[in-house]
Structures
1.
Amino acid sequence: MTAPTITIDYYVSMNSPWVYLGGQAFLNLVAKTGVTVRTKPTKFAEVFAATGGLPLPKRAPERQAYRLMELKRWRDRRGAPINIEPQYFPADETAGARAVIAAASQGYDAARLTLEIGREVWERDTNIAEEAVLATAAKRAEIPFKDINVKDGDHGHLDEVWEANTTEAIARGVFGAPSYVFDDGEIFWGQDRLSFVEAKLKALIS
C-alpha cells in the first residue's frame, strides 16, 4: 500500500549516531509505505543553541556515559556494527551536508545517502570531510558522485538551503536529530520513535 500524498520532513545531521542507527529502519518504513521524504541536513549546533541543548563535550559526565550505554543497546537492537567511539567524530560535515542537499535537489535518494555517509563515520571509521570517502558513500547509495560533488566556490546555494533548513527546524520546534516531522506539525524525535512514526503512517493510510 502506498501513500504518495503523505510527506515526512527528515531533519538530520551527518555526524549523528542516532541518524545512522535508525537510517535503515527508516528506509525500510519508507519503502513499505510509499511515503514521500524530504531529507533536510540541519546545523544542529545552531538548533541546540536556540532550544537549550548542549553539544556532547559540554554535557555532564553522567549524560555522556549514559549515551555510550544507549549506543551499545541500540547497536545490539538494530544489529548495526557501530563503533561507538569513532576516530573521526565529530567530523566536518559540511561537504556531506552539501552532497545530501545536492542529491535531494536532483531527485536522488538523499535519505539513503545520509545513511551511507553515517556508515562512513560509525562503521568504517573514515573522515567524511574527505572527497574520496563521500564518493564511496555515494557509490553505495547508487548516486553518481559527479552529480553531487560541488567544488568550493559553487556551493553558495547549497549553504543557503542548509541554513534555511536550520531556521525552519527551529521554527517548527525541532531540537534533536533525527526528527521526523509530518505536514500537520507533529514531531517524532529520535530513531527510537520510529514505531510511533509507523503507527501514524498506518492511521493516515487506512
2.
Amino acid sequence: MFVEGLDYQSGQAIRMEFRNGKINSVDRLEDSERPLPLIAPGLVDLQVNGYGGIDFNKIPFQVNDVFHVVQKLATQGVISFFPTLITNKNSSIREALQTIVSACKIDQLIETVIGGIHLEGPFLSKENGARGAHSLEFIQEPNWELFQEWQEIAEGKIRIITLSPEWEGAARFIKKCTNSGVVVAIGHTAAAPEQIAEAVQAGARMSTHLGNGAHLMLPRHPNYIWEQLAQDRLWATVIADGFHLPDSFLKVVFRVKPETSVLISDCTQFAGLSPGTYKSHIGGEVLLNSEGRLCMADNMELLAGSAQSLFWCVNQVVKKGLLSFEQAWHSASCKPVELMGGAHNFLRVGEPANVVLIEREADEIKIIKTIVGGKIIYSY
C-alpha cells in the first residue's frame, strides 16, 4: 500500500510504502501542483474512559462496545488508546479487565489499538476536591496483592496506574509497580511535597491530568501542583479541551516541560455525542452544550468530565497559539509513545505503519484517513 502527502514537520512531499504493518520506504516526491494532505503519526490517548455512548466503567459492557470505541476514535485520528478504569468495587474492576482482555483476544485490530489499560484508582486521596468524582466508598490504600490479582486478570495489560503517594507505604508500592514495568502516575492527590519527592524517587514518572482532580483552594506555596511541576522527572499530562484548564496554566506547563508534556482527552462516554441532556451513572443528569462543554445539569458551573477527543484538544491548543501545529501534534502522538517506553512513532522506515492523513485550512485541521498496521481503518 502507498500513500502520498506532505510530511507534517518538514512540509516535504513524500511517498510512503507500507508492508507487513511497517513503513517499508519513504521517498521524496518531486514538487506537485496537486494539493496533498499532511501525513502525520497517529494520535495516542493515554486516558479514555469511554466514547460515543460507551462507558468502560459502567458494568457490564461488551466486546462489541470496545470495538465501537476503536472505530469511533479512528475518526478522530487515534491509532492507540488506553481504556481507563476508575475507582470502583473490586469485582467491577475485575469484570472490566476481563472484557477488555477478551476483546483483544477476539479482534486483532483491538489488540493493536489498545496500548494498555490505565488504572486510575482506587488508591487515591480520600479528600473532597482531590478525589474528584471518584467514589469515596471504594477508595483504599495501595494493595500490592490486589494489584497483582488485577494484573493477572489483565494478562499484563495494565500499563499505567494513577495513585496518590499520600498513603503510608505508597513508595514501596510504587517501586514494585515500577520494577514490574508499570508506569506510575501521581493524581487525585493531597500529598505533601516530601511525599511527592519520595514517590518520584521510588519511580513515579507522570502526573495525571495535572491541574485537575484538585482542591478548589490551595496554599500559594508549597502545594502539590507546584511540586509536580518542579519535579523534572515527572511528565505532565493535561486535558487541553478548552474547559478543564485556563490557557495561562497550559502555557506554564508547556514552558516548564517542553519535552515532557503530553496532551490527553480523559474523554467520557459523552464524547462524540450530540448536544443534549444525558444521564450519568456517576453524577446524575449532565448537560453537553453546543460548544462542547460537559457540565452538571443542576449546576452548570461544575464540569462533569470531558466530552471531547484528543484531536479536539490538538485543535484547541493550535487555535489559541499555545503550541505550533507540529508541537501540539507531537505532544499527542510521539510524546505519549516515548513516555510509555515505545518506539518514537516517527515517519521512518521500520516504524509501525500507524499514520493519519490530514487536511489543514488556516487553524482548522480535519482527519482524512486513519491507517493502523498499514490498513485503512477510517476514510473521510
